[in-house]
Automatic annotation (TrEMBL):
GO CC, one annotated term: membrane
Gene source species: Capsicum annuum (Capsicum pepper)
Domain named Amino acid transporter transmembrane: residues: 23-111
GO biological process: amino acid transport
PANTHER family for the chain: OS05G0424000 PROTEIN-RELATED
Organism lineage string: Eukaryota, Viridiplantae, Streptophyta, Embryophyta, Tracheophyta
Annotated keywords: Amino-acid transport, Membrane, Transmembrane, Transmembrane helix, Transport
Repressor keyword on record: no
Pfam families tied to this protein: Aa_trans (PF01490)
Highest taxon of the lineage: Eukaryota
Subcellular location: Membrane
Cell division among keywords: no
Protein name: Amino acid transporter transmembrane domain-containing protein
Length: 120
């Protein structure tokens, strides 16, 4: 049971990190196009699996990123809860505010038509 759970977390971490990896690697290739460390691809022949492209920059950058986020997660033991709070705050307009405002716009409830003295 524990193995399946860690594999799921690893898959989520890997999938969510791909856009960051792609952005930084693309930016680095544009910034330093003449750098062999960043642009050089080595082709490795893995007989049963075929050819494999290998880049030392990707190895170093991705390893450093994983180490940094792992250390950050260890320093902030409630890091996952904090991310959940940020996610809830970012989706609040979609789940609460917009549906209520649309309902009030289209159905014009009577309590919005109450005239309060002194408020125009």
């Amino acid at each position: 049971m524990g193995r399946g759970r860690s594999t799921c977390k690893h898959k989520l971490y890997r999938d969510n990190s791909q856009p960051m990896f792609g952005f930084v690697e693309g930016w680095s290739k544009q910034k330093w196009p003449e750098s062999k460390f960043i642009t050089k691809e080595y082709i490795i022949n893995l007989s049963p699996l075929g050819l494999f492209n290998f880049n030392f920059y990707k190895l170093v950058w991705r390893t450093a990123y994983v180490e940094f986020t792992t250390i950050l997660a260890m320093l902030l033991p409630f890091f996952n809860d904090f991310l959940g709070l940020l996610g809830a705050a970012s989706f609040w307009p979609l789940t609460v505010y917009f549906p209520i405002s649309f309902r009030c716009t289209f159905h014009k409830p009577s309590f919005l038509k109450i005239h309060l003295p002194g408020f125009g």
